[in-house]
Design a protein that fits this description.
The chain is built from 17 helices and four strands. With about 400 residues, it is mostly helical. The protein has three domains: about 190 residues, no CATH class; about 40 residues, no CATH class; about 140 residues, no CATH class.
């Protein structure tokens, strides 16, 4: 006989320690209030009606809903548990079957938990009963958006990147907000389905190798090591770490740079419109200067020109084309910041749109401007800076 309400899984309910922690925190607060009222006898006003006390209750109830939403996704989504994902990868599970540990999507057990918090808010705490529902819903949707990025579902993540800031616009108050909320839920749900259909995700098979390479060692550095110099193998340090090939060193595609820039411009526009922020051309110029300096630091942190300024003057080679081309994109970014600031000052009431376009253009030039880091390192006229002594392998100089 089929159940009218599928039970799904016993572990969908919050764990006992979470329930006990909430009961202790809320019980201590309520019990302390009762003790204070008994000691005061007949106070001229109800302490429970004080706004400060109600704010504390709202924080506890809203925080409980947020913690429960985090628990639901961290416990049941494979992207939050690599051991669970690795087990699913070798199991016969497919996206057409329910997840073995429990569903990621909301089920009736979630309605019971949030309903209890809502009932406490309405009949005991006498605060807004919609607070636990809003806290749980927003936390759940935001975390699902982040998980779409973690599982590389970029089209749906990009669509959500445009939908989320649109909720802040004053012109969407009322029914447009409901329409945007429904669209947000539909995109997240479709992206989640596509994410499970794409399982096992390609990056799962390279997880161990990526984690090893991310520890600061390159491919050649992993292969070349000395045994017998200590309790653990000693890996070769500089200059092998600099000269050897690296994992996952790819340039940002132009399409990705375009969408990131447009998305940043859209967020800028929504923030300005929602907060009634005044025109800030100086801030745009400061952003351009900082971004240009950051790009130079990324490119030139471990390399230097083949000779210093005195060498350039003595040799008559003031401009080294192979090395100095790294300064072209930062200079273009600063120039766009200066010209953009001038245009913003004269844009009048159109300054939100103009500032957003300037920010988008700055980021697009910053990401797509040449030269590419990998090509520049391999082909430019440069020399590698010596690393500090604490980063070198001193054990190689000891007698064995």
């Amino acid at each position: 006989m089929k159940r009218p309400l599928q039970f799904h899984s016993q572990v969908v309910w919050p764990p006992s320690w979470m329930i006990a922690l909430f009961c202790i925190i809320y019980g201590v607060l309520t019990g302390g209030l009762c003790v204070i009222e008994l000691r005061m006898g007949n106070p001229p006003f109800e302490i429970s009606d004080m706004q400060e006390f109600k704010n504390i209750q709202m924080v506890i109830l809203g925080g409980a809903a947020v913690v429960y939403a985090v628990y639901r996704l961290s416990r049941f989504h494979p992207a939050c548990n690599w051991t669970y994902a690795a087990w699913l990868r070798v199991s016969p599970w497919t996206s057409h079957k329910p997840l073995p540990l429990g569903p990621v999507h909301p089920v009736w057990q979630d309605a019971v938990v949030i309903g209890v918090l809502t009932a406490i808010a309405k009949w005991h705490a006498h605060v807004n009963p919609a607070l636990p529902i809003i806290a749980f819903g927003l936390t759940y949707l935001v975390l699902m958006t982040i998980l779409l990025a973690a599982t590389r579902r970029w089209p749906w993540f990009l669509a959500l990147g445009f939908l989320w800031p649109a909720l802040m616009l004053p012109c969407v108050a009322g029914w447009p907000t409901i329409v945007l909320g429904v669209a947000l839920v539909l995109v997240i749900w479709q992206g989640h389905r596509r994410s499970l259909q794409a399982f096992p995700w390609p990056f799962l098979s390279n997880t161990n190798r990526m984690n090893t390479a991310a520890g600061g060692r390159s491919g050649l550095n992993l292969e070349m090591r000395l045994d017998g110099l200590g309790s653990e193998p000693t890996y070769l340090g500089w200059p092998y770490l600099v000269l050897s090939p690296k994992f996952n060193r790819r340039s940002i595609p132009s399409s990705t740079s375009f969408f990131i820039s447009v998305l940043a411009g859209w967020w800028t526009y929504c923030i300005i419109k929602s907060s009634d922020m005044e025109s800030l051309p100086g801030l745009v110029l400061t952003f351009a200067l900082v971004a240009a300096l950051l790009r130079l630091m990324i490119y030139c942190s471990s390399v230097a020109p083949p000779f210093n300024m005195w060498g350039r003057i003595a040799s008559g080679r003031i401009v080294l084309t192979g090395f100095d081309k790294v300064f072209l994109t930062p200079l273009a970014v600063v120039l766009i910041g200066v010209v953009g600031g001038m245009i913003i000052r004269r844009s009048g009431s159109w300054y939100p749109a103009v500032e957003s376009c300037v920010i988008a253009l700055l980021l697009f030039v910053l990401f797509t401007g040449g030269p590419a880091l990998r090509n520049w390192i391999l082909t430019a006229q440069l020399r590698f800076r010596p690393v500090p002594a604490y980063k070198t392998n001193n054990q190689m100089l000891r007698r064995v």
